């Protein structure tokens, strides 16, 4: 069964409230548009450092593998996504806490 987080991010993307890929996310972080960073659990340390250095206080979580994000969003794999709308952030973080409590957080590599 697909995670509710993947479905929420898919909905946010269809609403135009998600940036995907390192270059696009970096651009949106510089503009202070990103409310939540989602890093794939298999994202490289260089990618993580590069993005977080731009806005160290930005909320972020690690969830799913790059190939899972690609499959969930119907595209290539992604190491980082930026959520641009607070309502989507609230829903994603709420579900993240639920899954964390159930031991389902992370994804596969």
Task: Describe the protein in words.
With 109 residues, the chain is an alpha+beta fold. The chain has one domain (4-101): Ribosomal protein L30/S12 (60s Ribosomal Protein L30, Chain: A), CATH 3.30.1330.30. The protein has helices at 4-14, 22-30, 45-54, 66-73, 86-101, and strands spanning 18-20, 36-39, 59-62, 80-83. A 4-stranded mixed β-sheet has the order 1-4-2-3. Strand 2 (36-39), helix 3 (45-54) and strand 3 (59-62) form a beta-alpha-beta unit. Helix 1 runs antiparallel to helix 5. 28% of the residues are buried.
Layout of strands and helices, then pairs:
Layout: H1 4-14, E1 18-20, H2 22-30, E2 36-39, H3 45-54, E3 59-62, H4 66-73, E4 80-83, H5 86-101
Parallel strand pairs: 2-3
Antiparallel strand pairs: 1-4, 2-4
Helix pairs in contact: 1-5, 2-3
Describe the structure using short key phrases.
109 residues, alpha+beta, 60s Ribosomal Protein L30, Chain: A, four-stranded mixed β-sheet, 50% helix
CATH architecture: 2-Layer Sandwich
Strand order of the largest sheet: 1-4-2-3
Number of β-strand runs: 4
As for the number of domains, it is 1
Strand content: 5-15%
Summarize the amount of helix as a percent range.
Answer: 40-55%
Shape assignment: globular
CATH homologous superfamily identity: Ribosomal protein L30/S12
Our Rg estimate from Cα atoms comes to: 13 Å
Distance between the termini: 17 Å
Instruction: Kindly provide the name of the CATH class.
Output: Alpha Beta
CATH topology descriptor: 60s Ribosomal Protein L30, Chain: A
The whole-number mean of residue pLDDT values reads 91
